[in-house]
Amino acid sequence: MKNLKHSNAVRDGRKMEQQEFKSLLRQKTSEIDALIEQYLPEENGYQKTVLEAMNYSLLAGGKRLRPMLMHETFRMLGGSGRAIEPFMAAIEMIHTYSLVHDDLPAMDNDEYRRGRETTWKVYGDAMGILAGDGLLNYAFETALAAFDFAEETGTEEMKRIAGALKLLANKAGVYGMIGGQTADIEAEERRTPLSTKQLLFIHEHKTAALIQASMMVGAVLAGAGKDELAAIEKCAYNIGIAFQIQDDILDVTGDSAELGKQVGSDAQNNKQTYVTINGLEKSGADVERLSKEALRILADFEGEHDFLEELVINLIHRRR
Amino acid sequence: MKNLKHSNAVRDGRKMEQQEFKSLLRQKTSEIDALIEQYLPEENGYQKTVLEAMNYSLLAGGKRLRPMLMHETFRMLGGSGRAIEPFMAAIEMIHTYSLVHDDLPAMDNDEYRRGRETTWKVYGDAMGILAGDGLLNYAFETALAAFDFAEETGTEEMKRIAGALKLLANKAGVYGMIGGQTADIEAEERRTPLSTKQLLFIHEHKTAALIQASMMVGAVLAGAGKDELAAIEKCAYNIGIAFQIQDDILDVTGDSAELGKQVGSDAQNNKQTYVTINGLEKSGADVERLSKEALRILADFEGEHDFLEELVINLIHRRR
């Protein structure tokens, strides 16, 4: 790995052994898997096919990164209660719908994802559109169930849930993820040179916005104040952008077998990335700078966040 | 019109002159148009195209029936305050997104709607998908703004808004409109004979669910009790099904010039409709029965609803 030097710099002073981290990661991932399964729609009725297609997509073996970031932020800020649970399922549904629609023939036209056929490839084009719509709508239905947990706890908890819903909707929509997707599609269609500003807009909205939603929803539900929320937003921005730049780096330097996908596909598609615009060295240095800043922000929080810190380091400096 | 006899039966004892109704209808429609314009997203930023496509679809000259039913139900039940306003805009956004996605090449492949090119035809296939996603997501962003009006009014109003959001999401989703759309697409693809039960499932979910959402959200925000809400749900079901059967009748008996679209298109497409399954006479009688029952339910409400009653009659017995 070409940015190993940078990785090592960040790895100084870490509080958790890799083995302990890996074991916790497995445990937490399977807890989230079980949680999501509770919120899956049942597959029956005349609309059975769209429900099957939704569940097929949700169970495609994602890393559950967004619900995990949400829950860890909630924990760090001392959150308690179950209102977080439907939101954890909801953010994964929104992430999943975005992949289902991204893969459609009219969009990226991808037939495989994580080694399985994509949703439209299995269920057809029309059902791919409807499954995505169904997941987005069901994400809100699911998140709204958080109000059921607030019945006894009163107005303050209702206000937090309302705030979390607004954040989720905003970061997923045209001023968030859908906005980034639009700019990305247009950039590809136009094939004119992208400025760093445009590319950062795309990364900020297409990738970082949902990371922000995850961590900020966790924070709001834990009762974070305005300053804490702003710090979390900035931290999540850094994580999201660093994550995406690392993705671009791996497309050049990564190992196909380890990545589980072909490297060099960006170059092959003449896709402009952070690396093609800024070069490998600056890209690596930027990942380093962004992740250090994210970790510095986390360090200011008093609540326990050893796992969250390790998760961020692993995420940004991943090799696949 | 072949079902004129039935229409006249319903028209007995009406409280509002047609001229007064038409004038009120114009006034109320333009008030709703103005309201929706307030909630349109501004068209700027790197995601400008999707915002343009969303507004193009929202301003395609709809009848604004759903926000109107919502507001009239709210009025009938003595509702007050402004929390209803974002919901009125939101239901129109949901209705509009469903048309945008319905028209896509992978779905109905329609190039024209209400005499204008459809959204995908103007902005391309990918942007048609994103504009629909954007509208659905923005509907929830918009409806969530209702909480801003509840700040002073407290917990009771927040609970009503939470209830209205749940209803909206449920009736729009896989157990509502998207469910109906799924069953409809599959019925067309399979081309096996439909049972009346299947067809009613499609009409109930694809058409009636959003009428139910409209009237029930109005009722919940006005503080309707459980029994009142159940009555409104039944009333809206009847209106929705009668509306859809009338649509099928008009495809056989209507006047192309008046309808603004070709008649006989269902027969041409070998589409199974309520009329092809049950015949014209029974279909007309069912519209009559359903609309009488809807009006009987409305009559039990003490609040002023002369306009709402006339709206329902005009809607069900429309000739276009």
Question: What does it look like?
Answer:
The structure is a homodimer of 320-residue chains. With 320 residues, the first copy, chain A, is an all-alpha fold. Chain A has 15 helices and two strands. A two-stranded antiparallel ribbon of chain A has the order 1-2. In chain A, α8 runs antiparallel to α10 and α10 (196-221) crosses α11. The longest helix of chain A is centred in the last third of the chain and has 28 residues, at 226-253. The model of chain A is unreliable at 1-9 (pLDDT under 50). At the A-B interface, α3, α7, α8, α9 and α10 of A face α3, α7, α8, α9 and α10 of B.
The CATH class of chain A, by name, is: Mainly Alpha
Overall 3D shape of chain A: globular
Oligomer: homodimer
Number of helices of chain A: 15
User: How many strands, what sense, and barrel or not for the largest sheet of chain A?
Assistant: 2 strands, antiparallel
How many structural domains does the protein architecture of chain A include? 1
| Largest interface chains and counts | A-B, 56 and 57 residues
Stretches with pLDDT under 50, minimum 5 residues of chain A: 1-9
What do we call the CATH homologous superfamily of chain A? Farnesyl Diphosphate Synthase
Q: Please count the beta strands of chain A (DSSP E, at least 2 residues each).
A: 2
| SSE order of chain A, one letter for each helix or strand | HHHHHEEHHHHHHHHHH
Mean pLDDT score of chain A, rounded? 91
Q: Could you say what the CATH topology of chain A is called?
A: Farnesyl Diphosphate Synthase
* Helical fraction of chain A: over 70%
Structural class of chain A: mainly alpha
Strand order of the largest sheet of chain A: 1-2
Radius of gyration of chain A: 19 Å
Q: Which architecture of chain A does the CATH hierarchy give at level 2?
A: Orthogonal Bundle
Strand portion of chain A: under 5%
Distance between the termini of chain A: 11 Å
